[in-house]
Structure formats: structure tokens, C-alpha cells
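User: Last request for today: this protein with sulfoquinovose-uridine-C1,5'-diphosphate, please.
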Amino acid sequence: MRGSVSAKPVARQQQRAHAKMSAAAPRASQARAMGVGAASLGSRVQVASRVASSPSSVATKAVATEKPSVTLNASGKGKKVLVIGGDGYCGWATALHLSAQGYEVAIMDNLVRRLWDQQLGYDSLTPIASIQKRVAKWKELTGREIGLYIGDICDFEFLTEAWKQFMPEAVVHFGEQRSAPYSMLDRERAVFTQVNNVSGTINVLYAIKEFSPDCHMVKLGTMGEYGTPNIDIEEGYLDVEHNGRKDTLPYPKQGNSFYHLSKIHDSTNMIFAAKTWKLRITDLNQGVVYGVKTEETALDETLINRLDYDSVFGTALNRFVIQAAVDHPITVYGKGGQTRGFLDIRDTVRCIRLAIDNPADVGAMKVMNQFTELFSVNELAGLVKKVGAPLGLDVKITSVPNPRIEAEEHYYNAKNSKLLDLGLEPHYLGDALVDSLLKVAMEYKDRCDHELILPANNWGGSGVSRHFVGQKVASA
Ligand code: NAD
Ligand code: USQ
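Assistant: Here's the final one, the structure of the complex with sulfoquinovose-uridine-C1,5'-diphosphate:
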């Protein structure tokens, strides 16, 4: 069975590779431990962006005339923050943002996400550099070091060794298998998703308890933990009156994939750990993230973030924009009335900083809903079509059979005031952002493989094993 993969051996193979690689971590850590260069604090770094290579692309010209710059300051006061999953989409942007803001940052990642892409024949639309090249370029441009610990948080020995070297004051945990479709490909990936996510998070909880009990854990949860109930969604907890008695209880959870369910299990475990071991934990129930550029990642092409468009890792708005740019009809699943919370990646990084700067109280898990706006899938598709027209794109929208088992028309009203109360100033989704995202997608459109766009699997078809033919996921 050519191209067949197994999640468990992969994890073990990764672990072995990383056990070796992690031996290099002390050196990286020692170098980084020298600290943030004082000369770079409070400055503004400016570099010329790359020269356009595609003369036909309007987008490329626009990009090439910009002079990206980033503000460096010391507001983080050198606070040590470990970013688990720091090579990923949200983690990479966050690591750079925190470094720019004067936190002492180290990334921990086993790079398994890059491996899954290779196994499935996927690739980011944007060409992402290796994590080593990324952090080296960041240091070259800003003078700021980011530590690197390459390894698997499910390997407690590795986690312990790295933890004791860095001794974080806060840990931001992005390091999970985060795709709902991936978790529904087959039994192996369902099991892998839950083992990877749940046991990794328990290991982090134990590391905090054993080595730095005052370390604040900022954990990425998801709005999808709540499902689509026919009542308003609160921020984590619900006041309940039942048979004449009152209590405040965790909001009922209704995950819609084995991935979303893994986040629910994490939340339950974290509530327990916070209470039992008197830890500081914040669970951020994040909505769907869109966009690719932040101030920091736009500084140089080596720092560019990933932009997924395939049907397994690509998410709604990012996929729609890329589909428009490559002249593929926008793939609305079913009726398109599915409504979700969304946010710009520039707001993701700010939310994380706000969460770090406002730690949870000891003993009770804090929950904040991290999204800025609600949209239905149809609304997003319509917006992309409208903004594409002036760019010369004749955007078509199509309804494809929904691969998921989900409500396609439903009530949805979720609260999101806690991060706003802490000072979040959202970048609301408007024509300008869609326009700039479309231009990035147009710039890299030649890298798009159209065959990866239509759904590769469906929830009902998730079986015991799935055969991979060549590099494409066969549909059941
Ligand atoms: P991503 O796949 O781009 O990044 C996750 C990173 O974690 C990858 O680099 C991967 O290699 C690493 N990782 C996974 N398992 C690991 C392990 N056992 N040990 C060490 N590293 C490991 O995902 P993302 O889009 O950046 O999402 C980050 C987090 O935010 C996830 O927890 C996800 O559930 C959550 N989230 C994402 C979105 C979104 O729209 N992208 C929305 C809501 C919540
Ligand atoms: N959808 C389409 N067409 C597409 C892709 C998606 O109509 O081409 C629909 C889906 O059916 C779904 C909605 O858009 O109703 C959102 O799907 P998605 O793939 O954008 O997001 P989802 O699978 O929920 O997962 C993503 C991230 C995950 C995160 C979650 C936040 O991959 O890590 O947890 O967004 S939330 O949705 O709030 O749970």
C-alpha cells in the first residue's frame, strides 16, 4: 500500500528523531539565555521587502513597494514565555509578536505538522522556511533571540529536560493536532488526535506542578467546544437554576469531531488540575483564525507564515480567498448557514499577550472566548466575491455536499466581552483585509494544487483504516 501511513509509528519515529535533536536544545537555550539585546529595545526595524519576481502580478508589485517595519519594545520585561506549537500558524506569529514586545521567548515544537503535510501531499500556499532559518532571520533583523526546543510534549523526559532549562513563567500551549477533518479521516487519526492532544496537555500540567507551580498556562481551546446550542453561549461557565437550587457550572460542551472533543477533554482536565494543584490556567476558546500577515511575519519572506488551503487543514475564509485567487468556485458546504466566531491572526497574537499579562487566579480556570465577529459561511463567500471583483476576479460560489455532520441553519449567539474588557482593539473583517489576503493568494497562486481543494473525507465515511493512493487522500 504505497504512501500508507500510521499515526502511531509516526509519533514514535518523531520521538526518536527528536530525542536526538533535543540534545541540541541546551546549546540553543544557553545562547538564548544571554537575553534580549538592550540595544534593540524601543527601536523600529525596517527592511526592504523582496523584489517582485512575477511582473504580471498586481499583488507582487504592491508588496514590493512596501517597506515593512516592526516596533520593538520592552513591555514584556523579559518575562519567560514558552510557546508550544511555535512552528505552527498561530504559534509562529505569536512567538514573534511576544519577542518583539520584549518577552523572552522559546519555541517548543516537534515539527509534526510539517510531516503530516508531507504524508498527505499538502503544502502551505506560502513558502515557509525551516524553523531554524526562521529564528535565525528574526535574530538577524531584530537582534532578538528565540530559543528552540525541538521535541514532542508527549515525551515527558524531553519536556522535563527542556522545561528545567528554560523555566518558563508563562506557557502558551498551541501544540496539538488541530484539524477536525484530520481527526475524522480514520480510527487511527481519531485516536492519535486524542492521545496527542490530551496526553500532551496532561504532561504540560504535570511539568507546571512539578517544576514551576506559579507558571501561568495559556491554553488554546476552541469555540467549537460549545457546539451550536439553541441558547446564548457564555464564556466558559453557565449560571444554572435547577429544582430550586443555583450553581455556576462549566458550560455544556458538544464537540462536533474527535478533534473538538479532544479540546473538551483538555478543558475538563485543566479545570481539575487548577483546582487540585492550585495552578493558574487560562483556556482561550478561539474561533476560526484568518489572515496571514502580522507586523512581525511581514518583515521578511523568510518569516512568512503558513497559509493552508487543502480540505483537511485549510479553514473557511483562508480557503475561500485562495479559491477565488486560483479561479476555483468557493466551496460552501451544504446550505452555508453555519455560523462561527472568527478573528484576524493579528488579533490572535494580541489576545495571547493580553492573556499572559492578566494571569488567571490560582485554583480556578479562567475561560475567555477569543473571537471578534460572527459570520455565516455564506456571508464570507459573498464578501470574497464582492472584494474580488475590482481585482478582476470573477468569483463563483458553489454548494458542495457537506462532508460534516453539522447544523447548516441554526441559532448562534456567543459572548466575547472578556478580552475586549482587557483592552483588545479588534481588526474587524472588512474589504481591506480581504483585498490584502487576496493579493497574497494571487502572488503565490502557482503553488496551489487544485486537486487538494475539494473535501477529502466525510464524517460518516470515517472508517477503521483508510488507504492512501499516491499523495492524495482517497475518498471513501
Ligand atoms: P498548526 O497545526 O499550524 O500548529 C500546531 C503546532 O503544534 C505544529 O507546528 C505542530 O508541529 C505542533 N505540535 C502538534 N503536536 C505536538 C506535540 N505533541 N508536541 C510538540 N508540538 C506539537 O495549528 P494552528 O492553526 O496554529 O493552531 C494552534 C492551536 O490553536 C491549536 O491548539 C488549535 O486547536 C487552536 N486553534 C486554532 C484555530 C485556527 O483557526 N487555526 C482556531 C481555534 C483554535
Ligand atoms: N466550511 C465550508 N467550506 C469549506 C470549509 C469549511 O463551508 O471549504 C464550513 C464548515 O463546514 C464549518 C465552518 O466552515 O461549518 C468552519 O470550518 P473550518 O474548517 O473553517 O473550521 P473548523 O473545522 O471548525 O476548525 C478550525 C480550526 C480548528 C479550530 C476551529 C475553531 O482548524 O483548529 O479549533 O476552527 S471553531 O470553529 O470555532 O471551533
